[in-house]
Amino acid sequence: MGKSIFESIKDGVIGTISGTGDVASAVVDTVSGTLTHTIKGTSAVGTSLIEAVSDVGRAAIRGASDVGGDVGAAAKGAVIGALRGTKETSMEAADAIKTTVSSVIRGTSDVAGDIGKAAEGAIQGAITGAKEVGLNVTDATAAAANGILKSASEIISSTGKTGSAFIESSSGVMFYYSSGRSGGR
Fold this sequence. Notes:
- Helices cover 81% and strands 0% of the residues.
- By secondary structure, the chain is mainly α.
- It has one domain.
- The longest helix has 23 residues.
- The protein is globular.
- The relative contact order is 0.12.
């Protein structure tokens, strides 16, 4: 039996980061290549496509975390890679962004990573990826924010933590984007 998508992405990210040290490129290439291959090989649609996209976000974070890589760069790469890997499918780009971002944030929480950095990287990935595939940047950013909020709600309800701890860890992201430093205008 072959490796799962999760294991393939995680191992690919670990191998590439270990070889090059470039987290973002390692994740973009691994995620887009694996998704493209998986979708063509299985004709993944509907629920199976959503599950595949969700797996790649968590796996990219886990792989980067396992080798001490930057979760922000991994999050950015996961979103760009998911957009590239799903652009020839029936999946809407905004859904790919929301699903990937949500899984990246949950994956970051799973490895006790910096959720604020992951959220910032995910938004940057949505902006960069939107420009690449011709998606409206505002729509892409809204989809990323929606994914962050969805995962934040899930994390808060599953851990029993108060929302203030999550908001505090993410406050740098809100400042970063509200100050106009995102470059996404």
